[in-house]
Hints:
Blueprint: H1 16-24, H2 26-38, H3 46-53, H4 58-75, E1 81-86, E2 90-95, H5 101-109, H6 112-122, E3 125-127, H7 128-134, H8 139-153, E4 159-162, E5 165-169, H9 172-186, H10 200-212, H11 219-239, E6 255-257, H12 269-281, E7 291-293, H13 300-313, H14 319-336, H15 343-349, H16 355-360, H17 362-378, H18 386-399, E8 408-414, H19 419-432, E9 437-440, E10 449-452, E11 465-467, H20 474-487
Parallel strand pairs: 8-9, 8-10, 10-11
Antiparallel strand pairs: 1-2, 3-5, 4-5, 6-7
Amino acid sequence: MEVEEYLVFFFIRMTKEEIMDKLNSKLFLKIKIIEILSNEATYLSTQQLTERLGNISVNTVRLTCLELQQDFEKLYTEEEAKLIISTRHGIQLLRKDINIQLLVEDFFMNDLSYKIYQALLLHKEVSTLDFCEQHFISKSTLARYLKRLNRILAKRQLRISLSDKMILLGPISKIRSNYQYYFFMVHRRLDRLTWFPNTDKYLKKTKKILAHLNIEVSQNKLQTLGLMTLIFEQTAKHYGSVSLEEPSMQYHSFYQFTKKPTFLTDWSEEDWQFFTLSLYSLNIGAPNSFIEKKETRIFKKDIDIWLTTFEKYLRPLTSQEKTLLATNLDQQIQFHSMFILNSLLLSILGLQNFGSFNDDFPMYHQQFELFWEKLTKKATRFKNSDYHKLTSFLSCTAIIDPTMFNPTVKLFIHSESFSLHKTFMEKRINYFLSQYNVLFVSDYQDAQLIISTTTVFEVVTNTPIMYVYPSLTNVDLQNIETCVNHLFPSKNPT
């Protein structure tokens, strides 16, 4: 998987206080509103939207939506995207052929968190007085904001101290990872950091590093990796080299690294190892092209549990599938030990809510949830990890046909018209009942439901019979689906 695919859809476990902090943040609230509306094809009332968000007042949601409407009008044409607020119908988001990255970028760049991280990335120590004057805030306002922000940073072993100067404190690898997380979330690309001087220098250096490692990437990926190089060098400049004793480097001894190129004169061996290990965990380049594992599977115990649990609750695996999954899991575990991931980033990347997929394949969703429950009881490494749950979900879905878990329903179709009309009915019904494996039988006695276009069709049977219009109206199809759903009461458990 590439870097975008690694980033995740179930909330991190947060305290109630942290949830309220985030919901009280207008930035986070706007992102959550967009996420909810993006998954709705029709209007939601303000009350419905408020209930989906939870822990927030209706008036706050209403005012935030009005601001959000202005945000869309500022950045997009009506043909591209617009937020409709109707007194009669409610709220609906319409967008065509665009994503919301410009909007997210605008949100963050006008948020105080961005101003703080921007200043601290440019300068290790930032004058509190100068910062407050520049952004027209008082020191007490800044202190209150940092108190909230530090509660979040504490999860990453980081904090921003405040006295005459602001300083970001913590392990170097965590500081580096925090900047990577934040600026990738906001910008995704190096060329979007227009305020940072001489960004072309980092793009050229990234190209040289990739050439040294015989790695070819797209221009978009180069921009992403260029951003990583910039943050890597800037943090090294401010804080020095990463330590091998830090948690993010705990597995470095299991790898054999390509020799550091001579042009990286200001990089330590530890920094070079951290950088190449990052590329490996992001699945950049062929797995063994620039880094080799001294052991075939470093995390063998956890990976074996994952594979065994998969086979027990999903399906048997071929030897080729086991090898592929084991390689991916090895990289994913290494990645998780080095980088920060949380629900906010996943929401922004659109990887937070897979509700529509789960609605289409409820039985597969139930089976995956059972697999995940059993896995996390046996292998605690995966427990409470949004990242691992997402990557496991994507890995499973990549090799499994979700329809294999759909219930099989046997239908008998009777039509007094042409035989081709019966075929038409079968095709239409099969398409509409996408949540089932539909089997059309030739003997009505084998059917679980008989569908007929005429009441003349009379048989002695306990099998339910449904009479439909020959053209199969939408009402007919919905009635058929309702009837089939009643045959499988456990399909949608309450």
